[in-house]
Structures are given as C-alpha cells and as structure tokens.
Amino acid sequence: MGNREEIAERLAASGYIADGELATAVSLMQLLKRPLLLEGEAGVGKTEVAKALATVHATELIRLQCYEGLDQSAALYEWNYQRQLLSIQAHRGGDADAVEDQIFSEKYLLERPLLAAIRRTKPPVLLIDEIDRADDEFEAFLLELLSDFQVSIPELGTITATTIPHVVLTSNGTRELSDALRRRCLYHYVDYPDTDREARIIMARIDGASASLSLQIARMVESIRKEELRKVPGVAETLDWAAALVGLDIRDLHDAPETVHETLMCLLKTHEDKARMSREVTERLLGKVA
Amino acid sequence: MSCCGTGPDFHEADEVSRLVSGKLAAFLRTLRDNGFAVGLAEGQDATTLMTAGYVAKPNLLRSAFKHLFSARKSDWEKFDGLFDAFWLGKRVRSRSTTIGSAKAANNPSLKSLPNHRSEPRGGGDTAMDQIPSGDGADNDRSGEGRMEGASRTDNLAEIDFRKMADPEQIEDAHTAAARLAQTMRTRLTRRDLARRRGYRLDLRRTIHSNISHGGVPITLVKRQRKEKPLRLVMLLDASGSMSMYTGVFLRFIHGVLDEFREAEAFLFHTRLAHISDAMKEKDAARALDRLSIMAQGAGGGTKIGESLQTFNRWHAARVIHSRTVVMIVSDGYETGDAALLGREMAALGRRCRRIVWLNPMMAWEGYAPVAAGIKAALPHVDLYAPANTLKSLTALEPYLAKL
User: Fold this and answer.
1) How far is B261 from chain A (nearest CA, A)?
2) Is B212 helix (H, G, I), strand (E, B) or coil?
3) Eight-state DSSP code of residue A133
4) In this complex, which of A36, A103, A179 lies closest to B71 when CB atoms are compared?
5) If you count Cβ atoms within 10 Å of the first and of the last residue's Cβ in chain A, which end, N or C, has fewer?
6) Rounded to an integer, what distance in angstroms lies between the CA atom of residue A235 and that of residue A241?
7) Among candidates B322, B311, B323, B321, which has minimal Cα distance to B400?
8) Mutating which of B50, B63, B67, B203 best tests the A interface, going by the most A Cβ atoms within 10 A?
9) Distance, CA of A190 to CA of A206 (rounded, Å)
10) pLDDT tens figures, B24-64
11) Interchain CB distance below 8 Å, B215 and A89
12) What is the largest CA-CA distance in chain A?
C-alpha cells in the first residue's frame, strides 16, 4: 500500500508523467505477479511506460519487438551453429561424446530476449511490444512461458527462471488477442493525455518550452484530435511539433499563424488529413486556443 | 468491518471475512453477467487485494479491481459504473447489457425473425406487424410436412428464402447455410496446404540439421511461406426491407464464425453493432437469443452509409488486414445519405482486399440497381451477386477460394 505512493513518486521522478491509475497498476504487478497489458491508440506512449518502469525499478529493460512470423529461435534461444561447426571441425577424430557435450553447452547458446529475461540476477523489465503483430501460435507459447516461467531446451534440459521479470505487453489492436492472454494479464487502457498532462509532458521533454507555449500546443493538439482525421496525432507527434516550434523560436502560437500552419506537417501524416486542415481550419482552431 | 476495533476475536473475524467473500462472489457474478471474463484466479487475487488493505479506500480498490478484472477496452470503460453501483450503492445503469430484460419482449427482436422452429408466441406479436412471417402457419403444420421426404430437400437449394414458409424448411435452410459455411472453410484450408512448397533455402536450419553429418549439407531445409487464412468480415443489413432474409443469414454468419479461424460479423440497420461475441455461442438458437438485445431498431430503416462510417472509424483498423474479404449483405435501400455511402465504400475498398455485396433482391424479376444507395456503392464493389437461394450462396464459393 505504501508501495503505491512510492511508485507514483518514483514514476514522476523518472520523467514519466503518468495518469493517476498507472501507479496502481504497477503496484498490482508486484503484488499479484501478473503481467501488465497496455492497450491504446498508436502514439499514446505505451512503450514509454515500460521504459519508465525500468527506471523506477532501476533495472534493465529487455525488449522483444513482435512481428508476423516471429518464432522461438528469434524470441527465446538459438544454438550458435557456426561456432558449433567450427568446434566439430577442430575436434575431428576426437571423442564423439565429449564433442557433443561441448557443442551443446551454454557457451554455444545464444540468448534471445525471453530467455535473457528469466536468467538475470535482478528482475528486469521485459517489454513485449506489439504482441498483436505476432501469430496466434506465438501468443500461445508466450502464455505458457508467462505462467510457468521455465523453458525446456531439448539438448540442455529445463531452465527455470532465476527471477520473475516485470512483464509489460503492449497492443495496438490490429488483431484481437486471445481471451486466455487477456485474463492472465492486468489491463490498463492508455488514452490520449488530457490537456494539462500533455502540457506537462511537453515541458518535461522539450528544453526551452515555456509553460504558456506548452499549454497552447496541448490545447491546439487536443482540438485537432477532435477533427475527423484519418490518423489522429499521438503524443510523439505532439513532441515533434513542439520541438519544431521551439526550434523556430516561437513564443506564442498567435504570433505566427503562418508558421503554425506550415509546421502542422509534424502532426498530420496523410495527404487527406492535410487537405482537411486548410489554412482556415487552422485559424479557426487557433482562435479557440486562448 | 468492526472487527479491528474490538480486538482479535477469531469468531467475529471469521464472520466478517465470510461476509466479504460472499459479497465479492456476488460482485464477480455481476461482472460475469456484464460480459467480463472473470475466472477463479481473478477471484483469488481479488481476495489477496482485499486482505492487503485495499478495502479501506474505495477509490483505490476500484482502480485495482479495474486493472484486475478488465480484459478489453469495453470492460475498462464500463467498470467504474458497475463498481460504484455495486459497492457504493449509486444507482447507475448497472446491468445495462443484461440479456432478457423486460423491455426485450416489446422489441422486434431478431429472435422473433423467422429463424428457427419458433414456438407459438404470446403477446409480443403486435410489435412485429412489419415482418410478414411464415411461421404464422406453425400450428397447423405439425404433421403433413414430412411426407414429401427427400425430393423436397433436393430442390430446397433453389427456393427463394422468403418463400420458405414451413418452419421445418426454414430449419433445413439454416442447417444447409451453416454447412455451406463449413465447406467454404475446408476448401480454403486445403488449398492453403497444396501451396506449401518451399522455394527458398533456409541456411540456418540446414546447417543445424546437418551438424550430425559434421556440417556437410546432406539434407536441405527449405523455407516455406506461411499462408495466412482468409479473413471474412460480414456486415448484415437487418432493416425492415431485409427482414425475410435476416434469419437465414444470421444462421449463415453463425456457421461462418464457427468454422472460419478468422471471421468477424456486424449487424446494421440505423446503427452498427458488433455481434461476433454474441454469436460465439455454439448453439445457434441461443446465439440469436443473445442478439435480441442488440436488435433494437431492427426492422426499421437503413443507414448503410452511417453504419459504414462507424465501421471504418472504429472497427476497420482492428478487423481488416490485407487478406480480408468484406461481405455486405444488403438490399441497398439507403434511407440516409447516398453520397456518404459512396465515400465510405471507397474508404473501405482502400483497406480490404475485396468487397462482395450480396443482394437478395437481385434475383427478383424486374429488379435493377437503380436505388440511389446501391448506385453509389456499386463502383466500389468487386463482386455483386444475388443471394436469395442456397444455390446462389454456393456459387460464391469458388470466387472466395480464389482469393
């Protein structure tokens, strides 16, 4: 319980401006030893959560980026075939058993993220990014690993976790995840930050962004998100835009509506959206930003 | 929770924990009624949380339970209301999605569309005058149907769905539709297998498997390209003009969802509803039962354009990938804005691989696609086909298999 306030404090100290409920999620992860599943639109800062978590626990971040066709040899472990071959060639004529023992020893084992995560001495943060991009089969395999925390390697035997990592999974929702995986995890929906929080994020991340400018940018972005766009700008885009504006030495959005309109390319990523945000629309939205 | 003040009285403490766990169990039941997937493990963890001191602060407990019990965005959004209603006694619309609420009886529900061997109904009939149902003939039909036997099943394939009056005939049609959905799936899978031929050498695996030969590549391992199964997304029009066909197509959808590894289904009339979850029920009749709550407004007008807009905005990114066929079953009578329909169809076409539009009215004599809605939509449709008989549905199969 005291734990929770402490985590909130440390999250803030790590530079991650969290919404109120995230601290609860993180303390629950520890208490219940469950992975945390983060869902939300692209660009709301899901991956950042894992990075902040690593800072909070002062531990290593191990990241597994999922993609279509990701398999065990890329995610868990693989034998170093080249070295094995060399070793066989070098010991040609020697005792077969001894050679076999040697080439299937730890020395020839290549650790991939999942194996690495359970063999550290200090529990790392394991970030399984965009799990929805991996195949169903991989998801099932992951589920097994996440419940038992042990891996069996036929040539070596079973490797049990020395530490249980803090597991964070993220999903963009390009595929429906299985109910089993969802149930196994704690769930947190990451939404676009509200104006106030986004302004604080800008201030924390962009050097030279004043409080008033940050708030203006956040308000502007918030109203842009309400327009009917095909790609809604995320926090990363906001930061890009803020950096651009600060770089162009703009103190107040109202001073340079022209530049504001021209730099909107940082936020709008499709031709259609750009056409929609015409000069007039930009001015109308700017007018609403106090 | 007075136990803490009075000192350790084991009996009393026991009593309190029993009460709490009873209440917790009731809460879990409420959650399950509202569609949460909550199992035993979650219940245990919840108990852990309560003993860990979260009980003292409702806000904290709500937040903790929210993370624990939610599994998807929809859960996440309705959790706070449910929690407050249950634990804090606020009268929020709690069991908003409970099936079989009293209101359902007055609705022209999907369950009451001619879908299966329907029981003789009581009072609900008045609300359904717009459904010229064939099952009025229920009662006097009990014996005679059987006589014709096999010959009837034969030509069943060619009878227009709307002319099927006999409930047994309708039942047969449903079974056939479900079976058809199964065959489509089997064909597609088999074709996938036939294509699995390695065409690229997998060096890593080759070396690995030849280590026992001292590294001389004797057996070659080839790389096989994995065929992703076709995904079928079905959008079914449940408006008044389609009412005669809705039942059969719901059965068809049920079969498709059951058999295809990747399929999603939506229902629209004036609004769009995602029905895949409700249709997951193995028993088709019960699945239709679960749908009744979503059917409010079924049998009224159609806003295809608006429904598609909702689909494109909120669902398309998730349910559509590059091997997705979108199947729209509708007569194309748009009561909304036809221009919007055209725009949304174009947007949909950019996302998916093929759009198939099935129109049950197409085979009617003298039918021509002149309604504004269908005219706007047609340029974006890859296959426009009739679907009023089982035979016409079967005719689609080779087309789908080619994709």
Assistant:
1) 11
2) helix
3) G
4) A179
5) C
6) 10
7) B323
8) B67
9) 22
10) 888 999 888 888 888 888 888 888 888 877 777 888 888 88
11) yes
12) 84
Helix (H, G, I), strand (E, B) or coil at B74: helix
For residue A109, list its beta bridge partners.
A79
Q: Which residues contact B368 (CB under 8 A, 6 or more apart)?
A: none
> Inter-chain contact A176–B318, Cβ cutoff 8 Å?
yes
Task: Tell me the pLDDT tens digit for each residue of A262-277.
Answer: 899 888 888 888 888 8
Chain A residue with CA closest to B55: the answer is A1
Distant-in-sequence, close-in-space partners of B196: CB < 8 Å, separation ≥ 6? B224, B225, B227
Name residues of chain B where pLDDT drops below 70. Answer: 1-14, 16, 90-174, 176-200, 223-229, 281-300, 400-403
Are the C-beta atoms of A180 and A143 separated by less than 8 Å?
A: yes
Yes or no, beta carbons of B208 and A39 under 8 Å apart = no
Please tell me the distance in Å from A96's CA to the nearest CA on chain B. 11
Of A81, A174, A188, the CB nearest to B208: A81
- The answer to whether the CB of B334 falls within 8 A of the CB of B302 is yes
Q: Contacts of residue A179 in chain B, CB cutoff 8 Å?
A: 37, 71
Chain B residues with beta carbon closer than 8 angstroms to that of A79? 208
> What are the residues facing B231 on neighbouring strands?
B324
Q: What is the CA radius of gyration of chain B?
A: 27
pLDDT tens for B310-369 read: 888 888 888 888 778 898 988 888 888 888 888 889 888 888 888 888 888 877 777 777
The chain B residue lying nearest A21, using CA atoms, is: B63
For the beta sheet containing A125-129, the strands, ordered from the edge strand earlier in sequence to the opposite edge, are A61-65, A125-129, A166-171, A36-39, A186-189
- Domain spanning B231-402: CATH 3.40.50.410: yes
Place of tokens 């079953």: B329
Q: Checking DSSP bridges between strand A61-65 and strand A125-129, what pairing results, if any?
A: parallel
